[in-house]
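Customer escalation, tier 2.

The customer says the design service returned an amino acid string that "doesn't look like it belongs to this structure." They asked us to rerun it and document both sides in this ticket. The original structure tokens are below, unchanged.
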């Protein structure tokens, strides 16, 4: 178990045609915690993991495990275990696959047997299949084998790169639960990378959100949801993401093209320092909808079902549509008029360059 410190890391792929994958990334991952790394495809998540693992050397910057500069250490010296999106199963028995990192380190057979027995019990791998060839296993079992091989060796760091992406939904739920149980039990520093926010927010204690090679916010999951630092995080976290309505500051209110939002004195002061035009943000599930009353009126243009929730796309003025999410049916159809209340405590205000002000 170690604290991981990333200092001013930049990574560029290519010689003639350069692609900047990471841009001056600095972050600390605490000892023994599960930290999520979340972001869209191509944002630099996997590159960051490979640099921490020692599979890539950064173009610029340093990596520290506790107080040791490990930037020039190879993966074996770093003692990092990694599980990828596509599980690797060697052409040997299930037992030998799991025991492989212990055998190459020449652990005694009794110790190997003990550790293998412990991890298969936690992961739900039947001892009856230990002597079968792992290459013939289904994807879910191969991924369990890969996880078992990673944790059996008591590594300093466990890196999980989209480990559940290609599994069936029920298997994903099962393995996600087991992963959390294992990591909390052995208290290994774990970085969990995914583009699936529900997966990351369920497993991780803190989450780093990445976009275009940068860490744009690093916070507890509740803070990410309630207080996004910028519009990207507000929209990326949530299903659907945060609504944004363009507004203009007028004296002590925002003119939001369809309604006025009255500002508190401290909000007026903060906004006046930032400019004239803003975006008001509110999450779909925070909008209260009614057929009879509310502070904002609009026309329902689309009705969607999302699991047990209803999504109402509501036009509040020409070319301005917001989404309300509710778990009760209002018996409304496309074309009906509807009313909304926007709770003040749930409203966030962003500058035109995307940073949250209020």
């Amino acid at each position: 178990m170690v604290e991981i410190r990333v200092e001013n890391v930049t990574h560029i792929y290519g010689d003639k045609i350069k692609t900047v994958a990471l841009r001056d990334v600095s972050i600390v991952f605490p000892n023994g915690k599960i930290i999520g790394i979340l972001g869209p495809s191509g944002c630099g998540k996997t590159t960051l993991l490979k640099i921490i693992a020692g599979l890539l050397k950064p173009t610029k910057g340093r990596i520290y495990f506790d107080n040791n500069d490990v930037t020039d250490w190879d993966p074996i010296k770093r003692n990092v275990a990694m599980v990828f999106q596509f599980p690797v199963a060697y052409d040997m028995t299930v037992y030998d696959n799991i025991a492989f990192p212990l055998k190459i380190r020449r652990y005694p057979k009794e110790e190997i047997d003990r550790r293998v027995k412990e991890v298969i019990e936690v992961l739900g791998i039947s001892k009856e299949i230990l002597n079968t060839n792992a290459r013939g296993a289904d994807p879910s079992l191969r991924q369990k084998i890969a996880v078992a091989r990673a944790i059996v060796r008591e590594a300093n760091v466990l890196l999980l790169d989209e480990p559940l992406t290609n599994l069936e939904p029920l298997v994903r739920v099962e393995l996600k639960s087991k992963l959390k149980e294992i990591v909390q039990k052995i208290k290994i520093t774990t970085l969990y990378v995914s583009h699936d926010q529900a997966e990351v927010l369920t497993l991780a204690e803190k989450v780093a959100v990445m976009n275009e090679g940068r860490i744009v916010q690093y916070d507890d999951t509740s803070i990410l949801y309630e207080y996004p630092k910028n519009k990207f995080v507000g929209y990326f976290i949530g299903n659907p993401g945060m609504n944004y309505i363009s507004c203009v500051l007028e004296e002590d209110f925002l003119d939001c093209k369809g309604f006025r939002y009255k500002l508190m004195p401290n909000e007026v002061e903060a906004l006046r320092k930032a400019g004239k035009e803003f975006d008001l943000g509110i999450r779909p599930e925070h909008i209260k909808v009614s057929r009879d009353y509310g502070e904002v009126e609009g026309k329902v243009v689309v009705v969607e079902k999302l699991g047990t929730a209803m999504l109402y796309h509501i036009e509040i003025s020409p070319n301005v549509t917001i989404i309300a999410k509710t778990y009760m049916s209002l018996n409304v159809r496309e074309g009906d008029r509807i009313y909304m209340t926007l709770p003040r405590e749930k409203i966030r205000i962003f500058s035109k360059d995307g940073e949250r002000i209020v």
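Tier 2 assessment: The sequence is consistent with the input. The radius of gyration is 25 Å. Residues 330 and 355 are 35 Å apart (CA to CA). Sent an explanation to the customer and offered a walkthrough call.
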